[in-house]
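Deviations from the work plan: none for this task. Representative record:
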Amino acid sequence: DTAVSQTPKYLVTQMGNDKSIKCEQNLGHDTMYWYKQDSKKFLKIMFSYNNKELIINETVPNRFSPKSPDKAHLNLHINSLELGDSAVYFCASSQSANEQFFGPGTRLTVL
Amino acid sequence: DQQVKQNSPSLSVQEGRISILNCDYTNSMFDYFLWYKKYPAEGPTFLISISSIKDKNEDGRFTVFLNKSAKHLSLHIVPSQPGDSAVYFCAASADTGGFKTIFGAGTRLFVKA
């Protein structure tokens, strides 16, 4: 009965590959997010979707493409992976501005 | 350009004493301020929040104070317990489309038994 789930938990891949991270929430929330936590531990928002519509798109390379097939899912596809993409990626969901529920994170390592 | 700053990377407190974690922000347009707690290998967990129109919110051992004139907020934990040892993130959000939330860098709290 996990509220926000992400798969995979760990992802190790070579530079230049394409990979996807999946996220699902069973909370009935309308808004979902992707965050990146870099090596300095900063949590930075990448994207926000509301009811399958892209609302926030921070300055993220266009190699990153979020896809929301329905409001319970927000997947992140990354093309042509680079070393600097290595980080922990968190999915989250919310129904308001004063609380977000986070997934457990996906640790991406690009070799 | 960090809009939310946590200037103390770590804090060590004795069990039973008060822990005070501080946070500063630069943008007056935020509607909510939040604290999240994070254990290793887990996602952040919401702890407590405060609306920008209030100056205090209390929930059990946790109290958040907001000083809008100083653009400063703090989280008080009393009494501190060893299980409180974690990284605490301060965050600020705007009640606009997408609920954009900006996080601070985090403060690692150690509560010694």
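Chain B has a mean pLDDT of 94.
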